[in-house]
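Sample A.
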Amino acid sequence: MEVPLRAALLAWLAADPALSGQLNAIVEEAPSRTALPWLAVAASASADWSAKDVRGREVRIALELHCRGDQPGSAASLTAAIETRIAALPPDQAGFRVITAQFLRARAEQRGANTRAVLIEYRFRLLAD
């Protein structure tokens, strides 16, 4: 369920006109030649979350936003839009149901050449259809 969740999450984020209008890419892994800003899956991991009669997974996904800006709040509105969109992810997906989607943590980092990276981590609890 981890890989289908990653695909569903990226498709959901890319389908948002406001996000896709602000980001040059919303992708599975860091793009090699895409202008900033872009959003990619940095990592994910899953563990068993099954019940007696249904398979389940707890999936943790870290998304990384890369953008420009030398001010600490320069990525704040874009980060908030990403978090709002993830919170609205429909529970019914192909092959599984999202039971909970919980924000875990975020980390912002100033990098060279006036760039910033924001790591946003979530935990999803899923049950198979």
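Sample B.
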Amino acid sequence: MCGSFCTHAKVLKQMEALCARYEILPILSEAAAATDTRFGTAGDLIRQLEEMTGHRPMTTVAEAEPIGPRKLLDVLVVAPCTGNTLGKLAAGITDTAVTMAVKAHLRNDRPVVLALATNDGLSASAASIGALLNRKGYYFVPFGQDDPEKKPRSLMADFSRIEETVGAALENCQLQPVLL
């Protein structure tokens, strides 16, 4: 999970449903792990994830690095995936727990699913989205404009389609249509 704090409740709802069928190892960006907002406290988020998954969230680069060598994951889902994280992934920057998890996971040729939540998806983050759509190993949860009138450049994934996207990604297939 990254820092699109207003989407955390939606992501947690999907994660709770997935916990009934899968083992989930939670990973938080440093921003998500340390920032209290009007949507909740970082401590509450960490506690909720630990209770839900039975695992303490990884919150540092050092904690996420073993994901690759130990082949800990079949698929890695970044939800919500912010514009900041998109830019770092597109540029190969690994300075957060989430970006390190992605780098470590990709070394094993295993899929990474991105569920966008960014206010600049049709502006500053558009180039990063384009780069990652064209890069091996990345799969996008179908996304579209979440509020074209008030936020005309904002994009958000349909978080209810995370599990469906994971299934397609495990078959090396991008769920279509990717644009809603």
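B remarks: Strands lie at 76-81, 112-118, 138-140, 143-145, 155-157. The chain has a mean pLDDT of 96.
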